[in-house]
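WARN retry 2 of 3 for item q-0093 after timeout on previous attempt; input resubmitted unchanged.
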Amino acid sequence: MAEHDGQGWLEPVKAIAEQAGERIMAVYRSAELGVEAKDDDTPLTRADRAAHDTIKAGLQELDPAIPQLSEEGEAVDAQARAGWQRYWLIDPLDGTREFIKGNGEFTVNVALVADGVPVLGVVHAPDLGVTWGAVAGGGAWREAGGERRTIRARRAEPPLTAVVSRSHREAAVERILERLGDYRELSVGSSLKICRIAEGEADLYPRFGPTCEWDTGAAQCVLEAAGGRLMDGQLRPLRHNTAASLLNPDFLAVGDPGFDWQSITEGLPWQARR
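OK item q-0093 returned
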């Protein structure tokens, strides 16, 4: 990637994500969330739509030639997407259920994907006032209260800390936790789970069950720039825009790729890309 595609775009994308966060918080503080159900029975709020509009406009101004794939945008068929060498992958409000519950654990996710790999990622948690950012090969950082620090995933040493979802807990996850022996547990919502690993607060996040590429793209970039990895059930790095479906396979996010994850994951009912 050229310089202006990577480090030069990170700050503008961060600003766009934070502007979307301001739109989200305006709805969050109001009494009118405007909750409705989408066709797949997942919730949609006024904040999802407001954040989508803000990000769409900001990225078009940044470079109108780069296509956008957003959870709240128009559907793009697989044949059209197959011709994209790079595109923006967006979840305007990740953790809508957490948003509705009012626990603050929701994020804005924006990634630039090139040849199936997230090469720029910004995750912004507006209620927490924290932003994570990364460019592939350029390291990752966490910013809060106007202070930015470099982050690194940590070496996996017992007792491991496993991140689990507040809203989803599958039987296969329980089997992984049993195999860890003595372990600690951290429960958090949205893409914050992957960011916790990237900043060295946890070691693994196993996910069985449906997620979409926009749920993970930005945080994957942050995690991998911090030294971690997001892998499928065969422990291969997760790639994007490789199939007709935008659903991820079951995956494992880890901070230490050199650890023996095979012994912890083998024999489990991993689902490939759906």
